[in-house]
Design a protein that fits this description.
The protein has 291 residues and is α/β, with parallel strands linked by helices. The protein folds into 2 domains: 14-144, 3-Layer(aba) Sandwich (Rossmann fold), CATH 3.40.50.620; 154-289, Rossmann fold (3-Layer(aba) Sandwich). It has 8 helices and 10 strands. A 10-stranded mixed β-sheet has the order 3-2-1-4-5-10-9-6-7-8, with helices on both faces. α1 links the parallel β1 (14-17) and β2. α1 crosses α2, α3 crosses α4 and α7 runs parallel beside α8. The longest helix has 22 residues, at 204-225.
Length: 291
């Protein structure tokens, strides 16, 4: 069972980071909606030791403290206007943002971050705070990407093998709280230019059927656990797994992927597919630790 899920099959509380930027404000409102859907409390965190280049620079002076508190008060007020029924707490941390968010999350919360903060350039599609938080977390992390739009009523999840069951369960729980359907995408890649080895693969249709069967087997425990949920399984042949997932993310409310951390990689590294999806998906992306 994923650490974000209680014994009753409920999603945990929600933690969101803010620096007062437009992207962070959207993350706060997204988190408020998520907390309301879950019926769980929301904690809004502002980290004065953030890795973002915040303005004004935090120097511990009364003026800087006043600005930090203003950022939190503004976020709390926005939550109250949007979701007055959500129990909301604020936390002013002097630590860096990723560590502050993960400390606030504990063992069972979901962390929400914006795609970039006040220091982001237009070409930087994901800020270091979001990337480092997602890479280091042992709880689900949602990076709020894309433009705000009306709900589609669909949650999409990527599935490769049984290691993604935690991500699939999180996606199913999220879909249930949102009264949405769940689409599971399995991506398989076939090398087009394999020379003389081509005779080994005479029946591409059989390969596709085998991949589809494997994906269906991976999803079967989720079907049994959530019999009331409308679950669709799609298997896609593509040259790029990341490209296929980014394409599949169009028209969905949330894309859920398992966190893949390469062996012998730095602490804040993610797998290539997860990294690419976080930079290019047109909707919010949830990164869930692999089981």
């Amino acid at each position: 069972m994923n650490g974000n899920e209680s014994a009753t099959g409920r999603l945990g509380p929600v933690v969101v980071g803010t620096d007062g930027s437009r992207q962070a404000t959207r993350a706060v409102l997204w988190a408020a909606d998520e907390a309301a859907a879950r019926g769980r409390p929301l904690t809004v965190v502002h980290a004065t030791g953030s890795e973002q280049h915040s303005y004004p620079p935090f120097d511990g002076s009364p003026t800087a403290l006043d600005e930090a508190r203003r950022v939190l008060d503004d976020a709390a007020a926005r939550v109250a206007r949007r979701r007055p029924d959500v129990e909301t707490h604020t936390w002013l941390s002097r630590d860096k943002a990723p560590r502050s968010l993960l400390e606030a999350a504990g063992a069972d919360a979901t962390v929400i971050v914006g795609s970039r903060g006040l220091g982001g350039f237009s070409g930087l599609l994901l800020g270091s705070v979001g990337l480092r938080t997602a890479a280091r977390a042992r709880v689900p992390v949602v990076v709020v990407r894309g433009d705000e739009q009306s709900p589609h009523g669909v949650v999409t999840a990527a599935a490769r093998d049984d290691g993604d069951l935690g991500a699939l369960r999180h996606a199913a729980l999220t879909a249930r709280t949102r009264d949405a359907s769940l689409t599971v995408i399995g991506v398989w890649m076939f090398l087009q230019n394999i020379g003389s080895m081509a005779t080994m693969f005479d029946d591409i249709g059989a390969m596709a059927a085998s991949e589809a069967e494997a994906t269906s087997r991976t999803v079967e425990p989720i079907r049994k656990e959530f019999p009331e949920l409308d679950i669709t399984v799609e298997t896609v042949k593509a040259a790029s797994a990341a490209g296929a997932l980014v394409e599949a993310a169009a028209g969905t409310d949330l894309l859920v992927v398992g966190a893949r951390r390469p062996a012998h990689a730095p602490l804040f590294a993610l797998g290539q597919v997860t990294h690419a999806v976080l930079h290019h998906a047109p909707c919010p992306v949830a990164v869930v630790p692999r089981t």
